[in-house]
Amino acid sequence: MPAKRPPSLPGRTTQHVFLKDALPIAIRLHQEGQLEPARKMYERILEAAPGDANAVHFLGVLHHQMGHSDQAAAYIKRSIELDPTVPGWYNNLGNVLLESRRLAEAADAYEKAAAMSPRDATLLNNLGALRRAQERHADAEAAYRQAMALDPKLPEAHNNLGNLYRSMGRTQDALAHYCEALILNPKQHQARKMLGIAYYTLRRFDEAAKVYREWLAEEPDNPVPKHYLAGCTGEAVPARAADAYVEITFDAFAESFDANLENLTYRAPQYVASAVERLCGEAAGTLHVLDAGCGTGLCGPLITGYAKRLVGVDLSAKMLAKARPRQVYDELVKAELTTYLQSVNQGFDLVISADTLCYFGELESALQAAHGALRSGGWLVFTLERLDTDAPDQRSRLNPHGRYSHSRAYVENVLTQAGFDHVAADAVHLRNEGGVPVQGWLMSARRP
User: Fold this and answer.
1) Domain residue spans in the chain?
2) Which of 171, 220, 239, 316 is the most exposed place for a label (fewest CB within 10 A)?
3) In whole angstroms, what is the distance from residue 374 CA to residue 289 CA?
4) What's the CATH class of domain 19-239?
5) Span 256-446: which CATH code?
């Protein structure tokens, strides 16, 4: 008798892959960042073997990476039902649920993982992040300290404890842990960034600049320390944040963006939506709307009722991946904002932008492009951070945190020169940072 062949995947091409070989192939594709081919391979495995817990779990992780949080949680929960013995799977479920702000469910997942693996420092570090999100600061501190006791060389725990202390106003304590994180991992960019921020929060600007100079000396082509150094020193300030800086910053921030902004009592999307309601009246679904710098799409659900067509544009691919599951945008475009605006001559009735133009120092090109992108009678609504100054020549300032603030007179003048009328500026409280209110402008203007 001929030898029995092992089972193979259902053939969709002339090439067959044996089932036992398929999962390692899918995992390799996944690790290489080939998410769509990996997804298809996982799904083909599950067609042949629906009870393969590993394939179910890794498909859930992949959906999370693609920004599909609900699908991710469902697949990971299913994998745990199939095999409830893997602590890391509960940890992954907790990560997904935490980023979705499903805090009670995340707590249950992390606690189960920690009970199964009580000496896993990484699990305790994640549990600390959850407790911080729950505003249980003492419990978060205890979890981070347990993690550090189990693994004194875990830089992430020191960095996270530093972030916790900074949010509590304990900046000196935060500095100590940022320094420890850097000692443990000198290349850890987030710790270096936060160390610089801690120094400038203490108004120790020379020491903040020293952190960024040393970082830049090691990585002269890195736009992040270059940008922060300019903010600390006021030297070589760019007209706007470099594209590379914006992409790196927001790609890194995408996974936790919404949760972090919620913790900062972020209000810009609500201000923008209120202005749109005031200017455009009842939502009738008749407007072509551009969300300029849409990020994860926080404005989208608030203004979709006005839109016959809603387009989002952003430089960060990972931010756009988070916006896509909201299913309110007709099109999402990865592009630099001014360049995109210049390409759509009179294409929109409404352009909104929440906390995006604060990465521009000079506003002339962007606002002229916005004017050109609007149809007659179209409205532009956006937010900026506020620069209070009586000096007529001080138009904007790059701050040590990396964003620009602008004077009202400068913004109003640029809008008028660009051809807008009905220019208005309202003083607003955009968010809290380090316990301090960040003041801003809610701007609106019309193309005649």
Assistant:
1) 19-239, 256-446
2) 220
3) 10
4) mainly alpha
5) 3.40.50.150
